[in-house]
Sequence to fold (673 residues):
Amino acid sequence: MPSTSYTFAIGLGDCGSSPILFERVRIYIDYNNDGDFTDSGELAFNSGGTSYCNGMSNSFTTPASPQLGELMRLRVIVDNQSIGSPCHSPNSGEVEDYGVYFEETQIFGCTDPAASNYNPSATVDDGSCQYGSTTWYADTDSDNFGDPNVSQSSPTQPAGYVADDTDCDDTDDTVYPGAPELCDGQINNCNTGSLPGDEIDNDGDNYVECTIDAGGWDGNPAVVGGDDCDDNDSNNFPGNTEVCDGQDNDCDGMVDEGVLITYFQDLDEDNFGNNSVTVQACSQPVGFVLNNTDCNDNDDTVYPGAPELCDGQINNCNTGSLPGNEIDNDGDNYVECTIDAGGWDGNPAVVGGDDCDDNDANNYPGNTEVCDGQDNDCDGLTDEGLTSVYYRDLDQDTYGDLNNSIIDCAPPTGYVSNFLDCDDNDNTVFPGAPELCDGQINDCNTALLPSNEIDNDGDNYVECIIDAGGWDGNPAVVGGNDCDDGDSDNYPGNIETCDGQDNDCDGFIDEGCQPCDGDFLVINTITQNTYNAEINITSDAYVDEPQPVNFFAGTDINLEADFEVVLGTEFTAEIEDCIPTNFQGDDNTQFLKTANTEDLKEALHQKITQGQIELMILDRWGDIKVSKSIPIEALDQTVESLIPSLEIGFYAFVVKQGDIELVQMIAISSTQE
Fold:
């Protein structure tokens, strides 16, 4: 139907492991049925540059005024290259034509002009015609015979109308029932017989035998006169030129008057004669013609005006050069044109035509196709059966990207034959890749991310050790080696609080919070060189080292109060990894000792000499008790002023400036020393 949208579906190549992709689909419909698809609107559908495989469906809308009642062509073209016209020859695809038919609309009504309700637009009479009491017929030529096709109903006779309806031509008053026959090219008496023979131009020379009536000729418009003396020969009619043929060509009663004709031999029967061989006669002898312009009377394909054939010679007798497509330019014994059925008459080295590239001797019909980007065998295809699809391997992990491919004879640099990579920007991600601690699924499967790469407790650390290539997952993650991914208070670098857990993930719990009684320190073994010594110690003091503690060599051993030295050697040593608590006073009362803050101040002044610093004091559970920004010069005074305001307990004093951070564990007692 016109102005109607129609949906279509087209089956295409397989979408399997090596998919066949078609980038162009076009549909043409010859809506005006003129034999081509070049008119406006006859490109019904154009897919653009989208690639498809397996199949595709879409729709197009028919125009408002297509040709009705006629079978038209619909053409579908599929190719993997751009389609330039409806006559496109696909590189890889096909062309299919189908029939389309738009049904002609029928209009029902009264088709009788004599009826009072006559509908001139009606194509099918529905029996609804209505008439008056008397029917009168138009007598336009006033011969008293009416036109049966033009009538009206009236109780009285209208002017120009008669009751008779037998006129067969109401525009000519010489044509009516019983009229005398005239030489005017028509049947005057309205009978059903044939036109008289002398009013028929039997030989097609536009003359009839009878003498044209004074009223003129009303028959075949090609007839220009009468008095044809031989209506069986179109060469004989009044006014024709007399020729020497044994006949009265001009109908003047004489034959071949004053005429003698020269004929020329036509040996090759191409209707062009040899000017050197002639004969005089009134009629053409066998093997002779009137023309004398043949340049080769031994070849019927060579004569003036002959169409140029692919035969290696100049066929039209001119003096120009042999056409370029009949010359073997590249010396491969093939010419560009298709050899004529009559054979080749030129250069004997030529064995065939249809050379698709006459500038390259490697390309001619029947040659072996090689993968060089050319049509070596001239079959319209390039490198057929020799190319493959290769896929971009940007990250050089030997796995390609399905969405980035080329067709070539061999894989170019950076391309591979498979398309299995799920991330071609990362060479640690490919099928079968080992799982790394990088926040992504490395082997391209559909499994979930390993749990040790997921920050379960939201502290921005994961359990695994971050791969040397870096982290590519959740951007909130800043590190690995989370020793407890179920508790956001425990992660590498966190401040250790006295809560029975390894808050900083260093393998020790509540270091700096354990009590010790200072009863003994035993140096078990000593390994010494010029600069330092390693000792293995046994002590009830907590030491935050899983390996032997290194001490620099010195001249004496300086230990905190009451430590027992079982094996003595002159070293400088200091044990500061635990905070002594519950010291027993002379009066047998309990008190807490405030740790010396001088170490903190001395270390800080070595790293920070000027500017603002951030000071925080956290309790043993990690809660911030004090946070303020102060000049470094005010640190000593600020610390001394804050200690009396703190309750008894353990605290971490944290000092920061930029990337520098220092921490000192301090115990606050009820009795200050």
In short: The mean pLDDT is 81.
